[in-house]
Design a protein that fits this description.
Layout: E1 2-8, E2 17-23, H1 24-64, E3 76-87, E4 97-101, E5 104-107, E6 113-121, E7 126-133, E8 145-150, E9 157-159, E10 162-164
Parallel strand pairs: 3-9, 3-10
Antiparallel strand pairs: 1-2, 3-6, 4-5, 4-7, 7-8
Length: about 170
Amino acid sequence: MIVICLKATPAYSYGTLRVHFFDSTLFHENYLKFKNMKKVQIKYLKSYNSLIAVLLSLLGFATSCFEPRTDYGIPSAPYIIKGKIELSVDNTTLQNIQVKIQADSVKSDINGNYQISKSGYVGSPTYTVQFRDVDGTANGEIAPLDTIVKFVDGETVKVLDVKLKPK
């Protein structure tokens, strides 16, 4: 079977029409090649899209594991908790006591003093402060203590003197 295709040529050929003869079997073979190539392209794009989706989801999970940082334009302030750690029995100062707020931690110095800061949104934040004896038996056996510190409006520094009990 022969297909006749009339094609208008550009204006520089003075508007003449040219007649092209196509063999239908050649046309059909080219169509099948194009169809197979289209299937290969679709498979490639689907696998590429899957790879991108997996990478983006991993990036999303990786970044969601961290505490949110203060963004530009959002008012924030450093909230500071400081104080002295003593033993409740005889008021001796305790060194190397871990003071922890969320993921941030410090240890008390030789005089039992500590200072820890946490950056947060302006308002009335509440933090859970944990006191743990991490040096083993150097201070004796000290019982852990968890306490809640609430900042009121405008306050950015809290003094929290703590007396820990032996176990």
